[in-house]
Design brief:
The structure holds two protein chains of two kinds. Chain A is an alpha/beta fold. In chain A, helix 7 crosses helix 9 and helix 9 packs parallel to helix 10. Chain B has one domain: 2-Layer Sandwich (Transcription Regulator spoIIAA), CATH 3.30.750. Helix content of chain B is 38%, strand content 30%. Chain B is built from four helices and five strands, in the order E-E-H-E-H-E-H-E-H. In chain B, helix 3 links the parallel strand 4 and strand 5. In chain B, helix 1 runs parallel beside helix 2. Classes of the chains: A alpha/beta, B alpha/beta. At the A-B interface, helix 8, helix 9 and helix 10 of A face helix 1, helix 2 and helix 3 of B.
Chain lengths: 318, 122
């Protein structure tokens, strides 16, 4: 199983700016002083040893994550702005002549999680089938409203693909697209759903837009069970803990600290920090990753938990 | 987790021993609450002596945040002192070092909280 991240930013897309690129260039050129860069291989090697915040970017598209077990089984979580590039890649790979079926699992219906759908090219191709799964009763209404005038020029009824909405129930497992899928109700304005995907002994949990009250023992143990022994937990780590329990309390998001705690309780193998705060630049996000790894190290009580941070384009093998 | 209280001048020194996690954070909150009521302007300051605190989880830190908010709202002062290295790192990673006054020793914290605030000139 593979996980490919198409959009990792929380709340709002956050494009890289010219100023931010100049900072990266200046850092790279400074590091290049007295380094011989006479061949393409030497340049590649030099780039590879730069910090990720200099050589790359976490990216700016909002939530969209692909779960891959084979090239013809299309499973994605959320349709944030990252869905635009995902749709373009599907069109490039399969062309307009080969109808495809897409299974989408919606965490919830806030703008940053649906805004990519009007630009999701598979919806504009006849013969394609798109099944949008979720636990919210107003799933279809939210998508139709987004396409309505005056917000978008193409009405939902004009989309040529077959689009179906599938109601799921929190806590009730379903077998879909070859996966055993279990949704869980999460604390967020208007509710959100996490999803546990299991197939052939592998497990990934997608748990974004979820605020946690870890002093609530029952709730904490429910999430630990939801994350139990997962190969990868994709976790909303938008805020620092201090912000999450003070000025941003009830904003519906979590922190790196709680991600580590829940994954440690669950015996998960890997934690992926996700739904990055749009205000944070690459240096800050890299610093959060470093601090989170340190937290895991100093609080470890058992097998190590690997910590990674999602970026647009990251592919994780499970 | 054990809590001990000692009065030193206008400061209540609350020593916390062991671990605070999701299993006992509520119990810690219950033990702290009676003292927080007195943490107000012209009342007592609170020093949380963390020299014997081995670990604190997010659930415990939430109680620390509630305590800081309540003390501040009442015009009182609350500080932490003598943190072990691990707890200090957790404070920094969680950004709680931006929430609390932190002192290296309990004596320094008590002295700071007992010091009369400077009065404005007339």
């Amino acid at each position: 199983m593979q996980i490919r991240f198409w959009g990792t930013r929380g709340s709002l897309p956050a494009p890289l700016t010219t100023d931010a690129i100049r900072v990266k260039l200046a850092a790279a050129l400074t590091a290049a002083q007295n380094v011989r860069l006479e061949t393409p291989a030497a340049i590649d090697d030099f780039i590879a040893q730069l910090p990720f915040s200099v050589s790359g970017t976490f990216g700016g598209d909002s939530s969209c994550v692909e779960i891959i077990d084979n090239e013809d089984n299309h499973v994605i979580c959320d349709l944030g702005s990252g869905a635009r590039r995902y749709g373009a890649e599907m069109l490039r790979r399969h062309g307009p002549e080969q109808p495809q079926t897409y299974h989408v699992f919606m965490s919830h219906l806030h703008w940053d999680h649906i805004m990519g759908f009007p630009f999701f090219t598979p919806a504009f191709i006849p013969g394609n089938r798109i099944l949008i799964h979720g636990c919210h009763p107003n799933l279809e209404a939210a998508f139709r409203r987004q396409h309505g005038a005056p917000s978008f020029p193409v009405d939902f009824n004009q989309l040529p693909a077959s689009i179906e909405f599938v109601q799921l129930q929190p806590g009730v497992s379903a077998d879909i697209a070859g996966y055993r899928i279990t949704p869980l109700l999460q604390r967020h304005a208007g509710d959100s759903s996490g999803y546990r995907f299991e197939k052939t002994g592998k497990c990934v949990v997608y748990s974004t837009d979820s605020e946690h009250r870890t002093e609530n023992t029952r709730e904490t143990e429910a999430f630990a069970a939801f994350f139990r022994n997962a190969d990868l937990v994709i976790f909303d780590a938008m805020y620092s803990l201090a912000d999450a329990v003070s000025v941003k309390e009830d904003w519906g998001h979590s922190s790196n600290i709680i991600g580590v705690e829940l994954c440690q309780l669950a015996g998960a193998k890997r934690l992926c920090l996700f739904h990055h705060e749009p205000v944070f630049g690459d240096i800050q996000l890299e610093d959060i990753l470093r601090q989170t790894r340190r937290l895991e190290e100093i609080t470890r009580d058992g097998a190590p938990l690997e910590i990674i941070s999602a970026w647009d384009g990251l592919v994780v093998d499970l | 987790m054990e809590v001990g209280v000692e009065r030193r001048g206008n400061a209540r020194v609350i020593a916390v021993k062991g671990r605070i996690d999701h299993l006992n954070a509520s119990a810690f909150h219950e033990q702290l609450t009676p003292h927080l009521q007195h943490c107000r302007s012209n009342g007592d300051g609170i020093v949380l002596d963390l020299s014997a605190l081995d670990y604190i989880s997010s659930a415990g830190l939430r109680i620390f945040m509630m305590a800081a908010k309540q003390a501040r709202a009442q015009g009182g002062r609350i500080a932490v002192a003598q943190m072990q290295a691990l707890v200090q790192e957790i404070f920094e990673i969680s950004h709680f070092h931006l929430v609390y006054e932190i002192f290296t020793t309990t004596d320094e914290a008590v002295a700071a909280l007992n010091r009369q605030p400077e009065t404005a000139g007339t």
